[in-house]
């Protein structure tokens, strides 16, 4: 099996027992559903869907570290990629979170598992920046190109330039910051709903980067790095087509994405992606009511095994 720095072969997933769209995040997360929902039904479906998704990934050869969240104070705990990230040099980062109830998602048992089963050299904890109203919501706020050492970031309340520059300085990433908006002029709340970077491809809603020059510069960066460009429409972004993650399975690289996203991709786009990865649609429709999808649910582990 070839090692691909962009495609982790292991992930952390959090199975929620009391899932429901987060009231504290709906102000700037316009991907959250506006419909009235039955809490018990949505919670049960989310539990079942995450369980099934973890089983599908495991069957494909991805190592899934599955944690339980039985608390009722952390409605977004199913999205662990926002509060920590891991890096091939052995470092783990803990991030400052915008919504107060999301800060409760950070778990010492997840960090301890990483220390026990992987080579962890250092823990970089930025969470104290919350006291200064400085936030950087992990690989939601940043979409990282681990090969080119570039951090793509759409400006929002969820990312502060001070924290971003500190991360990029410490990890030797170049920040590429831009504005992305929907047709109503509303800023995209997390970069990872807009863009997915694979080993040799990128799928993104480039049209939502309204500054044409900046849009062209970003596309050119990807082309120069040899990546296949697959442009998504705003409608496809709203169907979570950009919120996918490339993973290393036992039989090659796969692209984990939601069934919603898979249905919204065109036949031509699926054919293009199939040149690089096996598409793995996962039904997470209940979880998508909270405004995030498959990529948000997967905290990739880029650490070396012990």
From TrEMBL:
<dbReference type="Pfam" id="PF19420">
    <property type="entry name" value="DDAH_eukar"/>
</dbReference>
<protein>
    <submittedName>
        <fullName>Amidinotransferase</fullName>
    </submittedName>
</protein>
<dbReference type="InterPro" id="IPR014541">
    <property type="entry name" value="Amdntrnsf_FN0238"/>
</dbReference>
């Amino acid at each position: 099996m070839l090692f691909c720095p962009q495609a982790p072969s292991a992930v952390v997933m959090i199975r929620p027992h009391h899932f429901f769209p987060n009231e504290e995040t709906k102000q700037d997360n316009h991907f959250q559903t506006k419909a009235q929902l039955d809490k018990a039904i949505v919670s049960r479906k989310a539990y079942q869907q995450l369980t099934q998704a973890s089983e599908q990934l495991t069957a494909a050869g991805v190592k899934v570290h599955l944690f339980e969240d039985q608390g009722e104070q952390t409605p977004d705990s199913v999205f662990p990629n926002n509060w920590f990230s891991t890096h091939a040099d052995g470092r783990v980062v803990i991030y400052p979170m915008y919504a107060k109830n999301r800060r409760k998602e950070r778990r010492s048992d997840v960090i301890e598992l990483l220390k026990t089963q992987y080579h962890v050299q250092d823990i970089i904890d930025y969470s104290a920046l919350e006291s200064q109203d400085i936030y950087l919501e992990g690989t939601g706020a940043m979409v990282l190109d681990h090969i080119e050492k570039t951090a793509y970031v759409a400006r929002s309340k969820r990312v502060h330039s001070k924290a971003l520059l500190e991360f990029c300085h410490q990890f030797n990433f170049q920040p590429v910051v831009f504005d992305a908006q929907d047709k109503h002029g509303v800023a995209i709340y997390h970069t990872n709903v807009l863009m997915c970077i694979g080993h040799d491809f990128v799928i993104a809603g480039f049209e939502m980067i309204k500054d044409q020059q900046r849009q062209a510069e970003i596309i050119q960066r990807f082309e120069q790095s040899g990546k296949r460009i697959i442009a998504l429409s705003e409608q496809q972004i709203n169907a979570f087509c950009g919120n996918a993650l490339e993973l290393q399975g036992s039989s090659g690289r796969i692209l984990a994405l939601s069934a919603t996203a898979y249905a919204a991709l065109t036949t031509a786009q699926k054919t293009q992606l199939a040149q690089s990865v096996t598409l793995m649609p996962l039904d997470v429709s209940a979880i998508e009511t909270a405004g995030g999808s498959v990529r948000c649910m997967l905290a990739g582990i880029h650490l070396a095994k012990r």
